[in-house]
Design brief:
With 84 residues, the chain is mainly alpha-helical. It is built from four helices and no strands. The chain has one domain (10-78). The chain is extended.
Length: 84
């Protein structure tokens, strides 16, 4: 569906951003998630590619930036289609 009929809606992005923000804010409430987050930050020196995005990083996202990032990953050489 994304390849043939891609529709990118601003309100869908807003909902996704809210979901990520709620996950981020819930992290301290879970000992397991909080420990994993601190461990990952220490292991990867705070490299943002490997840890959960911060609220500031989430707020910076725009629809064109997200669309471009997703579409760059959907190239024929990286896809496998299974019919069956």
């Amino acid at each position: 569906m994304i390849l043939q009929h891609n529709v990118w809606l601003e309100d869908a992005l807003d909902r996704a951003k809210q979901l990520y923000l709620s996950h981020y804010h819930a992290m301290p409430k879970s000992l397991e998630r909080a420990t994993a987050h601190r461990l990952m930050r220490a292991m990867f020196n705070g490299e943002e590619r490997f840890i959960e995005p911060s609220p500031q990083a989430i707020e910076k996202l725009t629809l064109p930036v997200v669309r471009e990032a997703v579409m760059q990953q959907l190239v024929p050489s990286n896809m496998e289609v299974c019919l069956g």
